[in-house]
Amino acid sequence: MLDKPTKLKINKKFQPSTIDNDDEFFRNGIFEFNITKLTQFIKANPNIFQPEEISINTVRFPSEHLDESTIQSANTNEPIILAEIAPDRFNVIDGHHRIEKAYRECSVTILAYKVKAEQHIKFLTSVEAYMEYVNYWNTKIKHYA
Fold this sequence. Notes:
Elements: E1 25-28, E2 31-34, H1 35-44, E3 52-55, H2 56-59, H3 68-73, E4 80-86, E5 89-94, H4 96-104, E6 109-115, H5 117-120, H6 127-142
Parallel strand pairs: 4-6
Antiparallel strand pairs: 1-2, 3-6, 4-5
């Protein structure tokens, strides 16, 4: 049985993820995640993050916006990152090119790190995004059954 998700509390001392020149980002509307820093955090905490196999069909969404050369050079052995965006609902925030390459190679599964909301929220790149995310998450808690 899954744990009941908890409401997030606003941390008035929240500090956005630092931004270095070569950092990679994922933006979904106002929510921008520092993927470079999140990846470093995942790799530094193997006791917390264990990659698991997931079905490619559950995470693949064809897009004409993917760069063909990046698809060709993608390392499908490197796990993708799924962020919990609502209770028990995860979206890809890193790995779209790897997913597409694995799909083209007829793979059925791909390795993924599932990152809970309270873990990935600290990798948001602005206070505004943080505040909006907490409010967004808490509205989803109300509808959780």
